[in-house]
Amino acid sequence: MNLNTSNKLKILIGIFLIGFISMFSVNQFFNKLISDLDKQTVVHESKIKIGEYVAEDIQTLKALFFELALTTSTQRSRQIVQNKMKNVINNINNALNVLEKGGNLKRKIALNVAGQEATFHNVLYDISQDDTSLPLEVIDIRPKIIEFNSMVKEVSNHMAIRYKYVKNKESAKLLKFSKKLRRYYKTAPPFFDRMSENIKRLLFEGENELEKIRSEIYSKQNVYLQIKLILLGLVTLITTLVGVWLGQTINKENEKLLQLNNDLETKERFVKAILNGQENMVIVSDGIEMIEANDFIAEFFDEFETIADFKSKYECICDKFEPSAPNSSYITKKEYGDKTWLEYILDNPDKHFKTIMNSGSALHHFSIVANKKTIDSKGNFIIVVSLSDITNEMNSQLELSHLNDNLENLIDLKTKELKDLNNSLEERIKKELEKNRAKDKQMIQQSRFAALGEMIGNIAHQWRQPLSAISSTASSVEMQMELGIADEKDIKKSYTDIKNYVAFLTQTIEDFRGFFQEDKEKTKFDIKTIINQSVSIISATYKDNNLTLDIDLPSGDLNSIGMPNELSQVFLNLLNNARDAIKEKDPKNRLVAIFSQQTEDEHIIYIQDNAGGIPEDILDKIFDPYFTTKHQSQGTGIGLYMSKEIIEKHMEGSITAYNKHQTINGHEYNGACFEITLPIFS
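The chain above was modelled as a monomer; its predicted structure follows.
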């Protein structure tokens, strides 16, 4: 699934938010665990503190008890001590209630400070956070308090009896009662000691439990901290990795966007350059407003420096159309019925629309051409409007109209002059045509004479060897007969040889006679046959000049249509020219190649020599009439001009020449290459 940069950025922000929330949640979770452990510590510390208060209260009770037993002598003093005991017992009961049910213990602490007699301490004990139960010793304190109250009453009674004995001065009874009191008082310390031991045991167990909890809390805090750090590290790592990956991806997307922006700017500059390269006013519109335009607008209207200046004032070029015009072909307003002016133009493609605009200094006529182009699959489109300034043409038409008005007056005046001129011109044309025909006839006649001269030379080369052989054979037979050594077998052999030579001469005459026959109409022929006939005519001169002719043609027929005898003259002319060029340049390898190619509807024949090529300064002139590089004594044959005329006019083909360096059948050629293209006959 491909995500655009905006979505990736949203994902990146979302991942960072998730990472932050995850880290916050992990931190809060472990903070809560640690807080719960801390609460347990506080609970046990509160329990110990309450135990300490109870221990202090028991010691206070003990002191008050002995104060009651030993120092109070009056009813009032005993009542004061008993009231203090009640307060202490109430404090102990409150403390026990908090230990049993939980709650807040408020304890008054006396201060020996001027201006402040006491302060208050609050101890909050949350029993829901305490997973331990109260020791039995603590539970046993309440019965001990009840027992202590009984002891206080008993001591008060004893003190009252003792006070009576003292008051009545009953010494014997006082002594006896004092002994009884001493025995009674000896039982009091163990009672207080047991209560103190219970409280001390509470404190001891509480401190042990607190130490145990603190150790456990410390251990758990370390574990929680490690887990917390690991989780925070994992969340941070995952968030960072995903963030880095998305960041790199977004960075790559940004780089692509930058490149696309650069490409878009380049294309915009390119399009702008194309628009500005037009000589007319070009506007790109969405059908209502102008999107883009070339600088012609700013150059045309005197009041604007740039296109932006124009667009800041006008939405459409139609705002500058003149409202009055000569005829209905002129666009003068924005809307035509329910259509905009552009829709009106597009709906009437066969009409030629124009408009008039004021440059600021003069009125100009413009022709309007509009083309609608769809730019995407959604059907969005642009309309390209081209406005060409035709003011000069319109002025010319106006002038022409004025001239036409006066033309009728001139026609009669000029008609006689024109007739006289035509009469003299016809005579001159006839004379020139007769001269040109005479020149053409002379050229053709010269070409034929030149070709005839070439043929005579070729006939001489072709006949030289067979005539010499006939003469030698006849002389040999004559000598044998004079010497009387001739037999019938030798004479028959010599006779057969002479017949063969005569047949060769006869065939040569037929070939030359066919060469000079005029073609009366186009016929189908095999190009290979024409090439072979031409080669047979010139082969002797090639052999005499030590030239190698390399023919590489396909096995099948190369059928075409045209004038075969005239084509043979062309081939013979090109082969003669190649021979003469090689004789003149005398290269190391005296080579001429004939080969062909075939396209779908053409045969292409190539004749390539190895004479170094045609000089570049005359290469484009060799097909001109009367142009030759040969000495007058060499003649011109039918010439390249006539060869071109034959190929193009009689064969419906083409002939070109160029210099080429190539390898053909293992031989390297560097010279002129003539390329003849002929139509395929099917």
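The two ends are 59 Å apart (CA to CA).
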